[in-house]
């Protein structure tokens, strides 16, 4: 029996405004793929990302172009060669994982994990703003054990000071989203170290980060925009201390698992992150993040409305997904 695929563009309002160094957004724009076969169906969600040249229309068209191959039963492994890494492949790959689990009765977790899943402590993201506004955000979330703070401007030292003073008991990840420069990266890293920052994520633009090989790292530095798939890792040795794995960058769970395992072999720390999406996008990432050094899967916490059923969050603890949601 041929598989049937449906593709839907959806929008979920963000609670307030989400701001990083490249701009602001008030809603999460996602594309959901459903693949059905023999009375069972699997779903996957992706978030097209403009930084990587993706648009809603372009990703939708890329998924539609795979309709015949999906109907013909393309495997997840064959999909790696049939499509480039990115959001479109992610939605299809995760839908295929979910469909396989629904048809065989074997949860995805049983296929990829050697031990049972457990709840994970996720970072909670604070939007970029003026220092006083960011301090207010930090103060409101000071009970959370791990905060991820968006920075990447001319006044970052003031932002770092404001946030660390407002949430003195929280561990803090700084995410510059490529917003620092060769001229300020050393001073900013030193200031971050002085204020007890746990990790600095992607301080410099991807491909323009060679200075990281020549300077000290008083705080561990994590690659985000600089790493998409396992093939990218060798070039990052000596530049970065950790890598942020996101399903929308890797093009699905299949490649993300390869990326994670190769990164561990090379000695990188592991962060599993996300775009701003719903619980459907986070669910496979929760499986990937088991055993990770840092988890940043707070997408649904930033939304005004999530899917039903969604992941269960208790403060910053996210529970494993129910199989009705995914997997």
From TrEMBL:
<keyword id="KW-0460">Magnesium</keyword>
<dbReference type="Pfam" id="PF13378">
    <property type="entry name" value="MR_MLE_C"/>
</dbReference>
<keyword id="KW-0812">Transmembrane</keyword>
<dbReference type="Pfam" id="PF02746">
    <property type="entry name" value="MR_MLE_N"/>
</dbReference>
<keyword id="KW-0472">Membrane</keyword>
<keyword id="KW-0413">Isomerase</keyword>
<feature type="domain" description="Mandelate racemase/muconate lactonizing enzyme C-terminal">
    <location>
        <begin position="131"/>
        <end position="222"/>
    </location>
</feature>
<dbReference type="InterPro" id="IPR034593">
    <property type="entry name" value="DgoD-like"/>
</dbReference>
<comment type="similarity">
    <text>Belongs to the mandelate racemase/muconate lactonizing enzyme family.</text>
</comment>
<dbReference type="InterPro" id="IPR029065">
    <property type="entry name" value="Enolase_C-like"/>
</dbReference>
<keyword id="KW-0479">Metal-binding</keyword>
<protein>
    <recommendedName>
        <fullName>Dipeptide epimerase</fullName>
        <ecNumber>5.1.1.-</ecNumber>
    </recommendedName>
</protein>
<dbReference type="InterPro" id="IPR013342">
    <property type="entry name" value="Mandelate_racemase_C"/>
</dbReference>
<dbReference type="InterPro" id="IPR029017">
    <property type="entry name" value="Enolase-like_N"/>
</dbReference>
<dbReference type="InterPro" id="IPR013341">
    <property type="entry name" value="Mandelate_racemase_N_dom"/>
</dbReference>
<dbReference type="InterPro" id="IPR036849">
    <property type="entry name" value="Enolase-like_C_sf"/>
</dbReference>
<keyword id="KW-1133">Transmembrane helix</keyword>
<feature type="transmembrane region" description="Helical">
    <location>
        <begin position="266"/>
        <end position="289"/>
    </location>
</feature>
<dbReference type="InterPro" id="IPR034603">
    <property type="entry name" value="Dipeptide_epimerase"/>
</dbReference>
């Amino acid at each position: 029996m041929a598989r049937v695929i449906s593709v839907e563009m959806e929008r979920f309002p963000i609670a307030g405004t989400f701001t990083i160094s490249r701009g602001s957004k008030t809603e999460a724009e996602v594309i959901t793929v459903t693949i059905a076969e023999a009375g069972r169906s699997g779903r996957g969600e992706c978030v097209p990302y403009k930084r990587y040249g993706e648009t809603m229309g372009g990703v939708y068209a890329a998924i539609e172009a795979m309709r015949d191959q999906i109907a013909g039963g393309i495997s997840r492994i064959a999909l790696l060669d049939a499509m480039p890494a990115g959001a479109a492949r992610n939605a299809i790959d995760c839908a295929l994982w979910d469909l396989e689990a629904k048809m065989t009765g074997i949860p995805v977790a049983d296929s990829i994990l050697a031990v049972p899943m457990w709840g994970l402590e996720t970072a909670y993201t604070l939007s970029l703003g003026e220092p006083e506004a960011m301090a207010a955000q930090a103060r409101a979330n000071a009970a959370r054990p791990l905060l991820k703070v968006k920075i990447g401007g001319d006044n970052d030292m003031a932002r770092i000071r404001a946030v660390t003073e407002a949430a003195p008991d929280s561990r803090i990840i700084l995410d510059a989203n490529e917003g620092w420069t060769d001229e300020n990266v050393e001073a900013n890293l030193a200031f971050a170290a002085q204020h007890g920052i746990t990790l600095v994520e992607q301080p410099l633009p991807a491909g323009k980060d060679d200075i990281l090989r020549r300077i000290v790292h008083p705080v561990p530095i994590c690659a985000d925009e600089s790493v998409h798939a396992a093939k990218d890792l060798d070039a990052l040795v000596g530049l970065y201390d950790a890598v942020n794995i996101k399903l929308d960058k890797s093009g699905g769970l299949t490649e993300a698992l390869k990326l994670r395992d190769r990164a561990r072999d090379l000695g990188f720390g592991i962060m599993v992150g996300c775009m701003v999406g719903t619980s459907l996008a986070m669910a496979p990432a929760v499986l990937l993040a088991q055993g990770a050094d840092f988890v940043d899967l707070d997408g649904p916490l930033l939304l005004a409305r999530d899917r039903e059923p969604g992941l269960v969050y208790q403060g910053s603890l996210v529970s494993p997904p129910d199989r009705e949601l995914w997997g």
